[in-house]
Amino acid sequence: MVAAGIFVASLLTLACGKPVSRLMQRHDVRSDVPSGFVQGGPASPDTMLKMRLALVQSDPDGLVKALYDVSTPGSALYGQHLTREEAAAFAAPTSETQQVVNAWLAENDITATPLTPAGDWLSFSVPASKANELFDADFTVFTHESTGKQAIRTLAYSLPADLQGHIDFVHPTTVFPQFKLNRAVSFKPLKKNLTERALPASCASEVTPSCLQELYGIPTAAATQSSNKIGVSGFIEEFANQADLKEFLENFRPDISSSTTFTVADVDGGSNPQSRDEAGLEANLDTQYTVGIATGVPNVFISVGEDNTDGIDGFLDEINFLLGESPPPQVLSTSYSFNEPELPFSLANNLCNAYAQLGAVGTSILFSSGDGGVSGGQSESCTTFVPTFPSTCPFVTSVGATQGSSPEVAASFSSGGFSTLFAIPSYQADDVSSFLSSIGNTNSGKFNSSGRAFPDISAQGVDVVIVFEGETGTVDGTSCSTPISASIIALVNDKLAAAGKPPLGFLNPLFYANPSVFTDITSGDNPGCDTNGFSAQAGWDPVTGLGTPNFASLLALAGL
Q1: Residue ranges of the domains in the chain?
Q2: In the list 147, 230, 398, 435, which could disulfide-bond 490, CB 3.0-4.6 Å?
Q3: pTM for the complete prediction?
Q4: What residue stretches are annotated with the Peptidase S53 domain (predicted)?
Q5: How, if at all, do strands 167-171 and 48-55 pair?
Q6: How far apart are CA 519 and CA 537, in angstroms?
Q7: For this structure, is 340 an active site residue?
Q8: 520 labelled binding-site residue
């Protein structure tokens, strides 16, 4: 943090020098316009572009080691989470990187603003004409055919040769906006005025808070520690409606106050309007099942707006915001994902390292695995299996979906598989090896057997009851299983905080070392790409992971 602070000050105070001629070296190029976009004419020379520089971090390997040290049972440092400053120090650029980038910016009369506590992301605005000169680029207007939205990008750019090894990548350049996030999409209305008392106690037909409490042993008593919080991510203008939450609690958690609600944090111009016809299906689901399951745990809905330029729909901006919080929520639940092939490794890896920072300070990060089986976040045509991101990041916990209650079986849409960007982490190496041995040559060539495998765990995700725009109905998806699982972790953290112990933090090393605390799911599969996909079986599998949670077992695992 001290080094980053010095860098900030120097950026603001260096005198502007005369630009000097530098040898340029191609940094990135893409061979064609991405599918769905049409290339137009050059960007107007005076159009202002908000540029971001991702600087090479000083010690990302050290950050990963520190994360595992505080997250692996048996480590002498287990549970001793880093401070924000300690985590940021690993991501801060070296003094050499600071000096050479600083000099280049000053030569070009540019003042940059640091975007992260570590100073590894810088932002500045320049006209398109100057951006073309700076990066030997050809910034062009591209139109997204299905939405009509426009984006200014270049198909290639260069950096001064002496900045290679100091600047990781520049955005926006060759990475195009996604305009689509995988999330829950369907709502099936039920009979009007349906209440908890009118539903079966089990989760066999509809899933409600009370059946989840029975199925997973979740306590109904309220949490007691105000310092322990759960964060819920909101994207693509999905708004969480408090009137719908109130009705949900009245009908399905009548034992707690129906005025129980959440606070709102905004990122990138996010908001949370309360007109009922603006309620978001995903946002309602996520807040109703975190407020409704994590009884009494303070809940913050993080609304990430459309004013983002991080190249990944505000996902990185959200984490940088949380890294600036003191403390951030001890659990973060996110029910959105991308298909991994849509993202370049540089961007995915940078975001993954940000998750490592947040995990190192003690936050458990949970992501839905997706709803397309082996074909990605949503079912689509494919010839090889499509992994989803951020589930493939080794530093998050990916959640698949189950259904039924005696016994639970895999939901057929539950995405799972193997990364093409990230290698198998050590904590799951034995489990993945056992699974691969068991399937032999099945689906050979359709997935990367040496990649990070997902999901890690699973929970109920079919016929989950919510209230949406004043109407009661059900939804399906790993978007359901994620807030349910996150709420269980938040309740364990409450017990830990009450005992004066640190939160669980990054979960995977603990979970894979203790698979018996989960209920193993051994039937069902996740078809896609004209195959049956993978099959659930004894032990870990890429459909339901290690299995579904048991609160009492997790408490015992936490030493409570």
Answers
A1: 2-57+92-171, 188-557
A2: 230
A3: 0.93
A4: 206-560
A5: antiparallel
A6: 12
A7: no
A8: yes
